Amino acid sequence: MYELTVRDHVMIAHSLPDEFFGPAAGLHGATFVVEVTWSRPDLDEHGVVIDIGAASARLKEILADLDYRNLDEHPAFTGRFSTTEVVAGHIGDRLRASMDLTGFAALSVRLREHPDAWATYRVEL
Amino acid sequence: MYELTVRDHVMIAHSLPDEFFGPAAGLHGATFVVEVTWSRPDLDEHGVVIDIGAASARLKEILADLDYRNLDEHPAFTGRFSTTEVVAGHIGDRLRASMDLTGFAALSVRLREHPDAWATYRVEL
Amino acid sequence: MYELTVRDHVMIAHSLPDEFFGPAAGLHGATFVVEVTWSRPDLDEHGVVIDIGAASARLKEILADLDYRNLDEHPAFTGRFSTTEVVAGHIGDRLRASMDLTGFAALSVRLREHPDAWATYRVEL
Amino acid sequence: MYELTVRDHVMIAHSLPDEFFGPAAGLHGATFVVEVTWSRPDLDEHGVVIDIGAASARLKEILADLDYRNLDEHPAFTGRFSTTEVVAGHIGDRLRASMDLTGFAALSVRLREHPDAWATYRVEL
Amino acid sequence: MYELTVRDHVMIAHSLPDEFFGPAAGLHGATFVVEVTWSRPDLDEHGVVIDIGAASARLKEILADLDYRNLDEHPAFTGRFSTTEVVAGHIGDRLRASMDLTGFAALSVRLREHPDAWATYRVEL
Amino acid sequence: MYELTVRDHVMIAHSLPDEFFGPAAGLHGATFVVEVTWSRPDLDEHGVVIDIGAASARLKEILADLDYRNLDEHPAFTGRFSTTEVVAGHIGDRLRASMDLTGFAALSVRLREHPDAWATYRVEL
Q1: Which chains have at least 3 CB atom pairs separated by less than 8 Å from chain A?
Q2: Which run of H or E residues covers position A9?
Q3: F95 with F109: CB under 8 angstroms?
Q4: CA-to-CA distance for D51 and D20, rounded, in angstroms?
Q5: Separation CA E95–CA E61 (nearest Å)
């Protein structure tokens, strides 16, 4: 199995309006460092999982819809909390919808929200 | 699959009294940076794998029993070497014993002992 | 010269409402990783610049006033942009006002806003 | 399951002479930070996956054949592109050929080529 | 004093053809992670040292002349060794020549060549 | 001004037997990641501050006297606390005593004891 990961980041505001989230219930924000991994059982004819330049460009496109935004006003998160896990899942779903993943075995999205906490969404294909 | 990881650290002394361990046989020490990951197939009703604050607090409780200690005198390691792998396993077992993991798919504990070496214990639930 | 640095972080929302800031003009957010450094020409009687525990606790006190906040509504930033540099300066000024720095040579505050950008405020004492 | 990872690096030149690779088609270079992970279902009699010193020495031996080299002139890459994925696979295959992996469950090799991109090769044993 | 740092990277080939450099004498390569810091005694009217977007764009312009290149064939290094220090100095000089640094106190360029070595060039203005 | 930094680490046990140090009073340990920086106003005839290989070898020599040791029994720390600052100063003094620093402007030693705390000793030459 081979994997290729590219990294980028977004800077967002959001709130998690439920007492479950304690101090994170109010409006605050985060730098999400985003690491996306594509997995394939074998390499393609160029000896890669996916071209790094193409992977980075695709990720940046998806992230452009989130970067410098208040997620409380973003339609993707209406009716649900924009937790780190949910945002990771959203990015993963957007990536899957935007590209042909035939031949790939898995896609995963990791979001680091601060040096001591991160979340990952992984889907087998 | 979703995962949530929190990170903390402990500073311990220990020895590995067997010639197998070469220079690490004598009394020395380590900063173990500890990363614990909880895995679930789906998010809970709050859109999380586990609350980051609750996860961090639980980890800190477990680590309090190790932090600033000489592991050679800690009962958990009587009769076995407190290698990085064994300490990772111990932390994982203590976490499992301290919380209800119904609904979770896996738990893993990674210990980084220096920039160029780390060990991981992972248990499927 | 000796220096001691401790690190912590805050998660804030803010806007920078001026076209100068381009996409950062609107409401967004950041995880600021905060590194504070105390400098002294010589060590004290315990062989330290400042006790790490005391330094960390002092920093956490100062940061509690910013963490999980929308800086647009924080009185410290009324009438000025809460840029990374300005927030670093604010934290430095708050630290200076909260402790006796006799015997210290300098204090600096570094804020990392994402993996590829950070700002530092340094004051000679 | 237990894992042990050691890290080292090599500094190589190479080209990827195909328009597919865009600006990387010409002669350039990379620092590859190499992380190798050995997995075992259980620890051995010393309480380790593999001795860190032995693992580091074995990795350094394998890397000595690549370090400070122009991979375009290295026989292992004749007739194929020395992409990050291919070099990871090559290191993994060389490690497997050089040691008895009875009792191990998997071996993986991660190469970080810059802060925002890395590739992994993983083989189940 | 305030400082602002932005980070980027280049991937280059080069040789250091002198026995002084041991194994680095032959053709090899490096990923240079580049951190550039601008210093000012006071912030400008927008509360910044320099706009992060503008700083990043300027750095990328300067680095485009080095990225994916063989420095042995780059005119800037004719007649001298393209050591990490020399490349840092070259980037610093190019930055100084490309922008008005009135009001700034210092400029520094750090190049990380692998996890365990880096070089810095700093010029007071 | 030019600087060159190399990095290595040691794993030590020690105690800080004074109530001032709270939980660190008892026997515990640390991984100290050690970064040593040499500064020179100009580069030498090879275009370097100091050869990276030579610098790394010199640092490793000095650290060999500390690595895998209990600092409570090391003669260098008799009668004083082996705080991070004191160990940094000790390494700096040993480096100065072991090499000719003519032409250098400064030497500094940074010890990272965990991800959130580090100390630096710097001497102007």
Answers
A1: B, C, D
A2: strand A2-14
A3: yes
A4: 42
A5: 9
Let me know: does E1 contact E40? Beta carbons within 8 Å. Answer: yes
Bin F18: left if φ > 0, else alpha if -120 < ψ < 50, else beta: beta
Q: Which two tokens stand for residue C32?
A: 């600021």
Q: What digits encode the pLDDT tens for the residues B4-26?
A: 999 999 999 999 999 999 999 99
Which of D21, D80, D117 lies closest to A5 in CB terms?
D117
Provide, rounded to the nearest whole percent, the portion of chain E with pLDDT above 90. 100
Q: Which class in CATH covers the domain with range D2-124?
A: alpha beta
What lies within 8 Å, CB to CB, of B11 at 6+ separation is: B29, B30, B31, B32, B67, B68, F24, F28, F29, F30, F113, F114
Per-residue burial over E18-44, b = 16 or more CB atoms within 10 Å of its CB, e = otherwise:
eebbeebeebbbbbbbbbbbbbbeebe
Tens digits of residue pLDDT in B88-99: 999 999 999 999
The pLDDT of A52-60, averaged and rounded, is 97
Backbone angles phi, psi at F124, to 5 degrees: -80, 140
Beta bridge partners of B4: A119, B38
pTM over 0.90: yes
Nearest CB to F85 within list C6, C8, C49:
C49
* Min Cα–Cα distance to chain C from A80, Å: 19
Long-range contacts of F58-64 (CB under 8 A, 24+ apart): F58/F95, F58/F98, F58/F99, F59/F6, F59/F8, F59/F34, F59/F95, F60/F8, F61/F98, F62/F91, F62/F94, F62/F95, F62/F98, F63/F8, F63/F9, F63/F10, F63/F34, F63/F91
Q: What is the dihedral of CA D53, D59, D65, D67, to 10 degrees?
A: -90
For chain F, which residues make up each domain, given as ranges? 2-124
Asked if residues B48 and F65 have their Cβ atoms less than 8 Å apart, the reply is no
